[in-house]
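So, does this match?
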Amino acid sequence: MRARASLSSTICLTTACLATAFAVGCSSGGGDTTGAAGSGGAAGATGSAGAGSTAGESGAAGATGAAGQSGAAGATGAAGATGAAGAAGAAGATGAAGAVGAAGAMGTAGAGGAGAFSIPTVAWPSDACKTMAATLIGQMTRAEKAAQMVMAPLGIASVADVQTLAPGAVFAPGGYVPPGGSGIAAWGSYLDGFIAAADQTTHKIPFLMGADVLHGNNTAIGTVIFPHNAGLGGSNDPALVQKGAQITAMEGAAAGLNWTFAPFAGVSWDDQWGRVYESFSEDPMVANMFVAAATMGLQGANGLGTGMPALVSCSKHWAGDGQANPGTSNKGGVVDRGNITIDEPTMMSVGVGPYLGALGAGLGSVMVSDASWNGTSLTVSSHMITDILKGTEKFAGFVSTDWNAATESKGASIAGAINAGVDMLMQPSDWKGAINTINTTTSISDARITDAATRIIETKCQAGLFGWKRDTTLAASVGSADHRAVARQAVRESLVLLQNTAAALPLPKTAKVYVGGSGSDSLDTQCGGWTIAWQGAGHLTTGTTISQAIAKVATVVTDMTQADAVVIVLSEKPYAEFEGDSQSINTLPAADFALLHTARMSGKKVVAIVTSGRPVLISDHLTDADAWIAAWLPGTEGDGVADVLFGDYHPTAKLSHTWPMTDAQVQLIFTATPYAPLFKFGFGLTY
């Protein structure tokens, strides 16, 4: 089933629609599925809280501007100016929206309508950085400039290699472990050697030190691991996402990193994809807001280099990688890195739209997708890279490729990628050979090489990397109580209450609670993929499981018959990228459902919590629990789950992705007609 619609005509493009997106769902005119619209809501049992209806407790108003309990304004807010993708501003707490686009800003309400979030417009690089780059470029040979255009992989490239060849960057493959282990001290001492090596090169140009730092500094143990993006995208709190990204930057910089392959900007349209959890939302305008917020947290609120400390962001994957067709994956999966068959207006809305706020806020780098668009590899698409990104959107930073994409993506080549506008190659299979190919290929002009190297050096300068050294004092704050408190807040703001029959939640703290299920005591399933290891190894780091968190609040019993309430945590195993692609979203363990049914038969109050990287099939089991919570992948701070279970925080999150009823709805998104999922985009209860 391909229940998709052309977003060029039906996407949420008005302030009123965006203001209601998390109260009742956007553009479908539908409200919740089970009929509850929150304690102040007016929705009935059939879910008829349409665009003009009064919102519930979360305070997001309907199109007529009728406010909920926290009073966020509705359609009275002035619409934002549209950018290249036809994007619009969302209403803030006062109802006034900003603009969005390559040179715009967008205001939106925070959690419960608390305050406006503003995205700045940043002009860069500075004149000083332009001058520095021009001076260095004037002193460099073609071969030296070609070296700036390649990343050297840790584990293959030595300190001596990079000191001799002076590549533009050094990067850690997913799950890489330094020789001394994965602790912050080991990472720091190891990367210090590479940082120092840059000072021994001919031109003393610093290296970008890159890694997939995605939801906290997930490369190192002992760090804080935040919820993955799908959960954060339901929080309606971009200020919190920005704050979390600031902590991520700090804990990354403590390890010696200064560049991250984040934030992810893809808009997922297929729940078979192993990257749904990396996607903030199926709505490109919601994604745009959070991608910008994360970029501002990582790089600095006022542009590249204004954060202290900060990382250079590399948002990915340009563009439309969430729209690939199933069965076309070039990595042996289902969807990942597949072929995207959409027209250009839809590409501009869904593929380009999520980047606009971040581009305006000074995004430093972009990774081009390893997918294809209408049969042509995006890695060699001069139209997408040079015409649109660098031309229409006036992107000032540099563009990199994905893993070996210049040689492995169908129809791609190193010369083809560079001539299409790629500035830096990720070619771990032969990074030295890639430098030589760029240097010696006559079809790559001197002008193209000069432009690429200039962009890279200007970005390094703007980020403040010349003379930069790792701040060893940052290690003391890694994994601190203050940092974990922010992650705990992110957890509770990302939990979506899907069902609460007979007011089963909140649980009394005096209750005796039985806790079970595959995810009840597992940091692996809480954190998901991209945690310590590429495919996830959360158990190697420090955190609080859901079971441990519950035990801090109430009495946990090991005999279900002795319990007043039963909490079952059903969980997907961790995964990342194409390894997580799945033909079916029936991915929760049968044993978890069996235990849930046993709990139902016990006659106790039953709460089901789902930890998953995608919406999964639960429709046949809804009656086995009184309450259902979609916890997504909450990370290390399980206390945030307990906060919601026991009433210390009333749930406010809304679904950032449509929750299907069956496998036939894996591609169902909120713009489709008809639209009848199990739970609609933007749905979420409170108590």
